[in-house]
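Re: weekly structure request thread

Next one in the queue (189 aa):
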Amino acid sequence: MKKIVLAIVLILSIFVAQAQTKNAPSQPEKTTDEQDGLVKDYFSQIMGVALSTTSNVKLFQFVYDWIGTPYHFGGDSRKGIDCSAFTKELYSKVFNLTIKRNSRDIFSMVSPVRREELQEGDLVFFKIHSRSISHVGIYLGNNRFAHASLRGVAINSLDDDYYGKHFYKGGRLLDAFKKQIEDSPDDAH
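Done, posted below.
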């Protein structure tokens, strides 16, 4: 329902802008930078995260497209998805990286990151009603993260009592992959 309302608001704002443009004196077309700025402002408002000039718009678009997808343990499609499949799909589509399918296995692929050092695209791991890692999400900034929860794909805050209580560690997958590449022998020569 939120997506429909947001889409209607966006469409109406486009029509209003077009009507104002037709009635206003001729102005130059918006540059790509201006368009990117508008997109980032839009995602900032929807997701509660201040996007910067270096923010990965593809990441936020992916999350936006999946918000509201139902949760289904073991699921990996728009009909239903779980946290690790959502994370795997995001890393495949946004970062072009193949990661493992289980939150504990994904944790084995990361360089640990303290909560205060989390960056956009990092992973956040939780121990929910378990002694081992049982949940994973993607950090967006401003202590907010995207994940497939029991209520479906959503954005929550690490400051929420529930998630703050169960937060285990953050992890940076890209640094771990870079290190593997640097440490691997160069077979090409």
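The two ends are 56 Å apart (CA to CA). The first strand starts at residue 76 and ends at 77.
Next request, please.
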